[in-house]
């Protein structure tokens, strides 16, 4: 049986990754998560009792704890999904982003390097450190072109700058120490268990509660959307077949303006849950002051991972969005407990967010 140390496994992508990986079987997961506001044990309720899943509350910045976990469970891989991940929060207060995304990744790398250096033979050969990152490190595109693995880094927000910094550290640990690292840079994810501060769940939940649907600026910022399970499949593919030291861009080839996304969501909701007053959910759209430094367009060229590792997304934007809307409709208790803060025993007041 293989063992993976997953960090940030109580977050959005992390909880989907843990569930998806356990479903494959023959794997043990040690899940290290600090349980910040974004970490939610209720996102893992169905896997908490699995004998193949061990949850540990703690920080990637706690080198001794990570070393202890590595020595005790002898994983074949570390998958680093722990991060502060919300751009708006990084603008309001960058400090946590620096501590977790940069210093935390450094501490995790140090612990992994110490562990890996004392492995021998096949165990040492097959060990992998997979660092999960974002396409935002590449900055903003004009109307043409795509981010490739060779695109220069040009991060524009404290969030993307902190992720860029962590990517550089990961790269350096390969070049300097030979640590067998893999880095993935992925486009915007959506799907079940996403914290409702992010665009798609925020719009669904506000629509269901008849609240305004806030769209930044003119709504013409473009993002490339990927269903979270497709991202999880890509991560396992990179872990299985990726070349140490390599970077793989992951994207869904689904470029949409924010306004397009909100329109599509409104149309879907009009179909599955028409409003009582007969109006479309589109009536709730409200344009709000743009985010400072808002990147205009991200678009991923994912041809390397397709060509070299044979990964392709399974979902289209339409099928993925349909599943997502259905999931939020069927899992009201999960998100109502997030909105009122009871998922962590305190009131966050997120229900009052526009
Ligand atoms: P998230 O905010 O939903 O989850 C992050 C998790 O990390 C939470 O469970 C949180 O408790 C945990 N965490 C935070 N600080 C920690 C620390 N110091 N030690 C241990 N755990 C800690 O984020 P997400 O959307 O699941 O993103 C996961 C990773 O994927 C991030 O690195 C992010 O940059 C990257 N990514 C996200 C997207 C996206 O669209 N969501 C796209 C590309 C890349």
UniProtKB/TrEMBL annotation:
EC numbers for this chain: 4.2.1.46
Pfam families, per the entry: GDP_Man_Dehyd
Record's keyword annotation contains Lyase: yes
Residue ranges occupied by any NAD(P)-binding domain in the UniProt entry: 5-323
Gene3D superfamilies, sorted: NAD(P)-binding Rossmann-like Domain (3.40.50.720), UDP-galactose 4-epimerase, domain 1 (3.90.25.10)
Catalytic activity: dTDP-alpha-D-glucose = dTDP-4-dehydro-6-deoxy-alpha-D-glucose + H2O
Cofactor: NAD(+)
Molecular function, one GO term: dTDP-glucose 4,6-dehydratase activity
Classification via CDD domains: dTDP_GD_SDR_e (cd05246)
Superkingdom: Bacteria
Gene Ontology annotations of biological process type: nucleotide-sugar metabolic process
The entry's keywords: Lyase, NAD
Principal EC category: lyase
NCBIfam families in the record: dTDP_gluc_dehyt
Protein name listed in UniProt: dTDP-glucose 4,6-dehydratase
Organism for this UniProt entry: Desulfoscipio geothermicus DSM 3669
Lineage of origin: Bacteria, Bacillati, Bacillota, Clostridia, Eubacteriales
């Amino acid at each position: 049986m293989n063992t993976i140390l997953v960090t940030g496994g109580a977050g959005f992508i992390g909880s989907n990754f843990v569930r998806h990986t356990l479903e494959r079987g023959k794997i043990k997961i040690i899940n290290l998560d600090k349980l910040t506001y974004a970490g939610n044990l209720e996102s893992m309720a169905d896997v908490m009792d699995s004998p193949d899943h061990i949850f540990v509350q703690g920080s990637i910045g706690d080198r001794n704890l990570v070393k202890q976990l590595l020595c005790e469970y002898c994983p074949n891989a570390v998958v680093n999904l722990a991060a502060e991940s919300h751009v708006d929060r990084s603008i309001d207060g960058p400090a946590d982003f620096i501590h977790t995304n940069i210093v935390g990744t450094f501490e995790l790398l140090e612990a992994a390097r110490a562990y890996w250096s004392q492995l021998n033979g096949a165990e040492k050969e097959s060990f992998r450190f997979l660092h999960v990152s974002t396409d935002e490190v590449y900055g903003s595109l004009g109307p043409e072109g795509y981010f490739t693995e060779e695109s220069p880094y040009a991060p524009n927000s404290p969030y993307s700058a902190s992720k860029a910094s962590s990517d550089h550290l990961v790269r350096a640990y390969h070049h300097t120490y030979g640590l067998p690292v893999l880095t993935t840079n992925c486009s915007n994810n959506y799907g079940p268990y996403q914290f409702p501060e992010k665009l798609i769940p925020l719009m669904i939940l506000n629509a269901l509660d008849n609240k305004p649907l806030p769209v930044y600026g003119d709504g013409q910022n473009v993002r490339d959307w990927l269903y979270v399970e497709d991202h999880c499949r890509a991560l396992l593919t990179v872990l299985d077949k990726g070349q140490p030291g390599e970077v793989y861009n992951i994207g869904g080839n689904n470029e949409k303006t924010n306004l397009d996304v909100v329109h599509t969501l409104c149309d879907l909701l009009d179909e599955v849950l028409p409003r009582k007053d007969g109006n479309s959910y589109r009536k709730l759209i409200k344009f709000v002051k743009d985010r400072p430094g808002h990147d205009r367009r991200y678009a991923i060229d994912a041809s390397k991972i397709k060509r070299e590792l044979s990964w392709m997304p399974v979902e289209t934007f339409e099928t993925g969005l349909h599943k997502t809307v259905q999931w939020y409709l069927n899992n009201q208790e999960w998100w109502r407990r997030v909105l009122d803060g009871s998922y962590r025993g305190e009131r966050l007041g997120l229900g009052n967010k526009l």
